[in-house]
């Protein structure tokens, strides 16, 4: 696996509701200052040629931007409330494991980011409008861009209404989990595994020594948590540079307790505090399981949805059948590798 830590960082950002809205808010700030710079330039001819540019006075500009800003923050609050309702429904009906899939929904993040970005843009432009008797300044281009952002936000709101109603349907949720399972299989079990390469045809592979368990020394875990990923390249580099034989005792998805035996190395006399820290740094621990290197996590998600569906309180066998169909397709895909 390449760039394990970067992949973990991207997975954490992708599963958060602050990353995309923050980026879009930063873009709105940059856009506001750029448009205001254009408005302060000497381009009256350009404004006269473009008939669709806003040409009203300062009072009209204030009214338009104030109305847009107040409506955007209201719609953003309503959209966030709908997202919370969807998360609560998913947790109660499909299980708490499914919350991660909803948190990774890029569509909801873009919707919230669009409303927040439009609100910030209108506020920044609104503060520059001057309508005194001596100095009058109306950022006509900036106001026009604000109106365009408003139209865009209306389109995003229409998309959000449709997206919110379809994202909580069982068929959609099961299909998304099945897609994540297939992606995990393709990522962790590529088709080239098992095919011999000409340059590796006559490569010698040694066997594990008979007295490995007696001669090897344990490497203890320095922290507790779920193993989300293992940097196998880093472990291979450590093993080659120090001429070690490593045997993992835990795989991704398992929970390790601080002080437990993380792995065993041979020869055991070479273990020291520095080597223990280097090996522990190759294990990425977290508070929850992820599908980064854990295929079983997606399987457990489908199993949990199926079990909840056939429980006496829900009694929905067709949802369980959909889960079985996804699992069957995934196992057939995995058996071909």
Kindly, what is the distance between the CA atoms of the first and last residues, rounded to a whole number of angstroms? 17 Å
Mean pLDDT: 85
In percent terms, what proportion of residues is strand? 5-15%
Helix content: 55-70%
Uncertain stretches: none
Determine the structural class based on helices, strands and strand pairing: mainly alpha
Report the order of strands and helices. Answer: HHHHHHEEHHHEEHEEEHEHH
- Outline the biggest β-sheet: 3 strands, antiparallel
Shape: elongated
What is the overall number of helices? 13
What is the number of E strands?
Answer: 8
How many separate domains make up the residues?
3
* Rg, alpha carbons: 28 Å
Q: What's the arrangement of strands in the largest beta sheet?
A: 3-7-5
Summarize the structure.
The chain is mainly alpha-helical.
Explain this structure:
The protein has 337 residues and is mostly helical. It has 3 domains: 4-168, no CATH class; 202-286, Alpha-Beta Complex (Aldehyde Oxidoreductase, domain 3); 304-335. The protein contains 13 helices and 8 strands. The strands form 3 sheets. Strands 3-7-5 form a 3-stranded antiparallel β-sheet. Strand 1 (130-131) and strand 2 (136-137) form a beta hairpin. The radius of gyration is 28 Å and the shape is elongated. The relative contact order is 0.12.
